[in-house]
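Notebook, student rotation project (T.W.).
Task set for the rotation: take a protein with a known small-molecule partner, predict the structure of the complex, and write up what can be learned from the model alone. Partner molecule chosen: magnesium ion. Sequence and SMILES entered below by T.W., checked by me.
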Amino acid sequence: MTLRDDVLKMLDQVIDPVSGRTVVQQDMIQGLVVKDGHVGFVLEVASGRGPESEPLRKICEAMVLGVTGVKSVTAVLTAHDDHSGHAHDDHAGHAHSHAPAAAKPAPARKEPPPPAGLPGVKNIIAVAAGKGGVGKSTVTSNLAAALQAEGKLAAALDADVWGYSIPRMPGLGGQRPKVSPEKKILPLEAHGLKVISIGFFLKEDEAVVWRGPMLHKALTQFLEDVAWGELDYLLIDLPPGTGDVSMTLSQLLPQATFMIVTTPQDAAQKVARRAAQMADKVNLEISSVIENMSGFTTPDGERYPIFGEGGGQRLADELDVPLVGQVPLTMPLRAHADAGIPLVAVDPDDPASQAIRHAARGLIALAPPAPIALPVLEVVQAGPPQPVGMSLPMA
Ligand SMILES: Nc1ncnc2c1ncn2[C@@H]1O[C@H](COP(=O)(O)OP(=O)(O)OP(=O)(O)O)[C@@H](O)[C@H]1O
Ligand SMILES: [Mg+2]
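Predicted structure of the complex:
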């Protein structure tokens, strides 16, 4: 396979949110040039879709940059008057001789500066663990639903680039996020929760090998281009083995903190050491621990501590942060998690739902109180500064 084939294969994984087909299937990639590792192409969209397709252009660029052997990528957006998607058999490689007056190539751009956090989001919590399969995804979506149930505005970002949990959420079906007139990606809503996942932009069942730079760019994209709006909490579901993703997040979201998920039987000291090393490396704080799979609770409410007891508390002590909750193993939580439904949203009485609601209240209690809004004082450029010590009222 040539590099050109690899590039086209990668682009054939990028979904056009309007048609639901890939940009290659939709014949939107034009004039592809691959030379010495440098790639250029035109992303052609129907007229009127020009500005709103900017996020798609960026995603195409980011994806191609991740192809092994690619050194640089320039994708130019053009709006076509009459783009049926099938009018031409093969555009790739042909020059654009008929560009209509409406065609507006995006100016060549430098790398955008990283965003300085997410201004409308008050708390950002990255859900991490010392090992895989301890329930990070389950905790993330249920905790977001629980925060919402406690009256907070919460959203979940699925940064699990290998597992994509959120597109599985029923109700989302084959939906793709829409783009606002301001060119921002609008999160989807499922069970009252705003959710966005890297999986929304990829074809299902396509294994993608995400490498550092592409991962970095793709995550940057989400963080920059998603219109989260005002949020009290953004919970981020991290993939297992969090190196690259945590690195990116810490650069982009310096205000984020980690919540560590652990199980009762995990060796607290080992998890603590790992978590602390990761947090140190990326310079983010660990703010809480949540214990998951804390005993099995039967439908009758009987509890069996099958995985032992106390791991969460030991880890919390070790890390010197609060333990916000102990979530039991219950059958409904597993069944709903696997179906993509946050149990908390549909069965608040399940012992696992109650434990997660309890954890949500704990998190809310931990959050620093909202700053008191002070009236804005007008700064008057007065003359020379008043001498200090002369402010006593003269009798
Ligand atoms: N408290 C619980 N009760 C019952 N089942 C649970 C519970 N927590 C998680 N599970 C189940 O355990 C499995 C693993 O959970 P999940 O996918 O959330 O873990 P993860 O840490 O995100 O995994 P990965 O490291 O692969 O991303 C899932 O099948 C989930 O439904
Ligand atoms: Mg997961």
